[in-house]
Amino acid sequence: MRKDWLSKSFFIVLIIVTLITASFAFAQENKKSEDDVLNLSLKDAVKLAEENNQQIKLSKLSLEKAGLGRKQYRYQDKKTRDLEDDIKKAIEQWDSLSEEQKKAYIEGGGTPPVDPGISSSFEYTYTMDLLERRTEVAVKLAKAGIDVTVKGIDFGVEAAYYGALSARDNTDIAEAALERQKDMLRIAEAKYKVGTVAKKEVLDAQVQLAKAEADLLKARSEEEKACINLKKLLGLPLDRVLELTDSFEYKPADMDKTLEELLGEARKNRIDIMSDEGAFEIAKLDFDLNSKVYPSNTFIYKEKEYAMEEARIKLADTKSSVEAQVRGIWFDFEEAKVNIPVMDKALEMAQESLRLAKLSYEAGLIRSVDVAAAEEGLKQVQLQRSGVVYNYNLARLKLENVVYFSASGITSGAVGSE
């Protein structure tokens, strides 16, 4: 008897140990699975991108190179002027000598000092003045380029994050539509069992369920593509699972700046305008310097004049293009801002239409295809609203960045919307 009891006790202990071991292993597996998921806010995504992106380092290197170029030409200019100062001192000493001393110096093989006049020549002053302006422009653009590079990286990541959010919202919409179709199939099957509908009603519901499953598969695929795009920008492994912790701003709000204020900022801060302004300044200086030496009927005068006018026209064209881009994004923003409340009302109507359709179907007043039409109408309104919300947030993001660089690379339109 004692032997049987010991055997049973051993068996119970063995089961307990096995369960504890399995539970620990399961817990460890769950912990590993949780560790594999990266909870990512928009702020964290931007920070991660800035840390991993080499373009910022290259932009800082460009500034160092531009500064080095300026130091180099200034050092060369100083060396030339110091040499001329030494020559002038030698000339003063030569002039202070008597004729006998000069004659003796020359007979001894010496050569009288002569002022080469390098720094006072047109070629030298022309070259140095242009170098000064060119290096000033290069340093200015390099400094602005660092800020623009950072903002450009942030913009790309934020736009990709918004794309992933939009795709996630569309997946949620597809999942909700699938659950509604499952409910419809259950209702159709129940009605068929009691003989109130024909077999065709069940088949129709099965078809709609299959379509909803296919739509969900497509939505999940689009979401995964959007997440892959985001992970590429962040330098993350493409198989890393992301959990986006932020969501869209659904309540539209006005910008804290007017259109005219944004246009003013763009004229001041746009890197392409800065570049063309620098090119025009250099071309104008080139013309001004040459026009003091060459008359208006010479080839050099005309060549420099044409170059200056070409730079002026290009600058004016760039300013016009920038203004058109800012105005276009502004109107996109205003349109999306107005459309959100409209889509909210449309969504409310579509939800009510589906509710009434279901009640009518359960009462035997309409067929399942009528409910399917109401269901599809709701889904399309949800997708349209998702697209409008995405467009609003994207347009707002563009307006915040278009004053620094071209923000036309990211197009509006909800990711994965139909």
Strand runs, count? 2
Largest sheet: 2 strands, parallel
Low-confidence parts lasting 5 or more residues at pLDDT below 50?
1-34, 412-418
Structural classification? mainly alpha
Estimated radius of gyration = 38 Å
Helix content, binned percent: over 70%
H/E series, N to C? HEHHHHHEHHHH
Shape by Cα distribution: elongated
Number of helices: 10
Overall mean pLDDT stands at 84
Roughly how many Å apart are the termini? 74 Å
How is the largest sheet built, in terms of strand order?
1-2
Classify the beta-strand content into a percent band.
Answer: under 5%
Q: How does this structure look, described?
A:
By secondary structure, the protein is an all-alpha fold. Helices cover 80% and strands 2% of the residues. It has helices at residues 2-36, 42-52, 55-96, 99-107, 122-193, 199-234, 259-269, 271-291, 299-362, 368-401; strands at residues 37-40, 241-244. It has a two-stranded parallel sheet with strand order 1-2. The longest helix is centred in the middle third of the chain and has 72 residues, at 122-193. The protein is elongated. It starts with a helix and ends in a 17-residue tail after the last helix. The model is unreliable at 1-34 and 412-418 (pLDDT under 50).
